[in-house]
Amino acid sequence: MKISVIGTGYVGTVSAACFAELGHDVICVDIDKSKIDLINAGIPPIYEEGLQELLKKHAGKRLSATSDYDSAIMNSDVSFICVGTPSDSEGNIDLGIVKAASASIGDSLRKKKGYHVIVVKSTVVPETTEKVVLPVIEKHSEKHLGEFGIAMNPEFLREGKAVHDFMHPDKIVVGSMDKKSGDIVAALYNGLKREVTRTNPRTAEMIKYVNNSFLATKISFANEVGNICKELGIDTYEVMSAVGKDFRIGPHFLNAGAGFGGSCFPKDVKALIGKAKEIGYEPQLLKSVIAVNEGQPARMVMLLKNKIGSLEGKNIAVLGLAFKNDTDDIRESRSIPVIKDLLDEGAVVSAYDPMANENMKKLFGGIRYYSSAADALRGADACLIMTEWDEFKSLDKEFDVMENRLVIDGRHILVKPGKDIEYVGICW
Ligand code: NAD
């Protein structure tokens, strides 16, 4: 089938490359010319394991990129909207980019003869596909539903494992307003051995939010339990390892630490809170999930101050800037509030991340960035570990170059800290 993918960020680029791998012809559309050029040259605009290989294989053959909506819509049967859905200043979902992309699709659709399906893959709050995207497309295309189809197909991939997750999904959800467009979208996934859950668009939208909110809830629950365990001298990891053996609970997402970040969990939980309030419901549990999460970075700094007192003029090494391992994405990374607090307290920050230094430089230009943990640790009065990178597990001799070997671990990564290190866990 011929597909166009609107927005070539994490979701768009990965979806485009994987759809090409499944045998479809794919045209990517983005307003950012630099991403178009990179994709056409077979270079991923973001880092994702396995993405480079797929782009190299398909760019210039089954995969191309353009900023011209008209040619993309004319030369495809299905368009996936994969643009960002950030939070607005109140934490509610900002649908401005989705509306702009829908308007552009509608303008092009007006000039096209024949059936076309528009699929919302961006994470959007329930009712958006029906009450926001559909009317914008109808207005701009001067066509009515039936002359084109509309569907919602949420994306569940994890950054860092996005290509693997797309090719081996544990669920595929397609919500459509009519059977024809749902059948077309479901058929795109025929190459994957996974049953497609068919539903209506608002249910598909809700499934995505419930999925992310439940995982975020598990993390904040584990962090709250961890904070209590630490005060009581109980190993929260031992507790959760036993608790997770209950088949009704499961072992995943019970690791206490510095909290969740990334482009999805914080914004999606906040967006669901916003949607609930809009319909007159006060979501107490979801609000607490965010509150616990926002407290964890401050705990890292509090533990540090408890150990070394005032941070004025102290050299603090921050290891890990990405919101999680195996990605260069720093969006909502827990290292951001930590670095901000350190700077506000007058500390001198040295930072190292295997992949995310360049992205963090755009946020904090005034701190020192290093190309290895050992270099960042040289002369430090303390070190904070903020990301669960594999290479941090084996840090040992690297701590020898610190002025004061105090390590505060926000990720339970330094499982066997050396004898000469003063080791403090955030929740253990
Ligand atoms: P992103 O910000 O990385 O990428 C969005 C892209 O859209 C950018 O390249 C931007 O230039 C482009 N764009 C903006 N306006 C445009 C327009 N009018 N026309 C064409 N392109 C335009 O976003 P992302 O992380 O890929 O997320 C996209 C959506 O998918 C969001 O709703 C997000 O919540 C959801 N999602 C993300 C993940 C994830 O892990 N990143 C996982 C599942 C779902």
**Low-confidence segments:** none
Output the strand order for the largest sheet.
3-2-1-4-5-6-7-8
CATH class of the largest domain: Alpha Beta
Report the strand count: 14
- The H-level CATH homologous superfamily of the largest domain, spelled out, is NAD(P)-binding Rossmann-like Domain
Q: From the helix content, strand content and strand pairing, which structural class follows?
A: alpha/beta
Bound molecules: nicotinamide-adenine-dinucleotide
What number of domains? 2
What's the CATH architecture name of the largest domain? 3-Layer(aba) Sandwich
List the topology elements:
Elements lengths: L1 E5 L3 H12 L3 E5 L3 H8 L10 H8 L4 E4 L2 H6 L3 E4 L14 H15 L6 E4 L7 H14 L7 E4 L9 H6 L4 E5 L2 H9 L8 E4 L1 H32 L3 H8 L21 H14 L5 H25 L6 E5 L15 H10 L3 E5 L4 H7 L4 E3 L2 H5 L4 E4 L4 H4 L12 E4 L12 E4 L3
Parallel strand pairs: 1-2, 1-4, 2-3, 4-5, 5-6, 7-8, 9-10, 9-12, 10-11, 12-13, 13-14
Antiparallel strand pairs: 6-7
Helix pairs in contact: 1-3, 5-6, 9-11, 9-12, 11-12, 12-13
Task: Give an overview in words.
This protein is α/β, with parallel strands linked by helices and 428 residues long. The protein folds into two domains: 2-199, 3-Layer(aba) Sandwich (Rossmann fold), CATH 3.40.50; 212-428, NAD(P)-binding Rossmann-like Domain (Rossmann fold, 3-Layer(aba) Sandwich). The chain is built from 16 helices and 14 strands. It has helices at 10-21, 33-40, 51-58, 69-74, 96-110, 128-141, 162-167, 179-187, 201-232, 236-243, 265-278, 284-308, 335-344, 357-363, 373-377, 390-393, and strands at residues 2-6, 25-29, 63-66, 78-81, 117-120, 149-152, 172-176, 196-199, 315-319, 348-352, 368-370, 382-385, 406-409, 422-425. Helix 8 (179-187) links the parallel strand 7 (172-176) and strand 8. Helix 5 (96-110) packs parallel to helix 6 and helix 9 runs parallel beside helix 12 (284-308). The protein starts with a strand and ends with a strand. 48% of the residues are buried. The model has no long low-confidence stretch (mean pLDDT 97). Nicotinamide-adenine-dinucleotide binds at residues 6-12, 29-32, 35, 82-85, 97, 100-101, 104, 122-123, 155, 157, 159, 263-264. Nicotinamide-adenine-dinucleotide (NAD) binds at residues 6-12, 29-32, 35, 82-85, 97, 100-101, 104, 122-123, 155, 157, 159, 263-264.
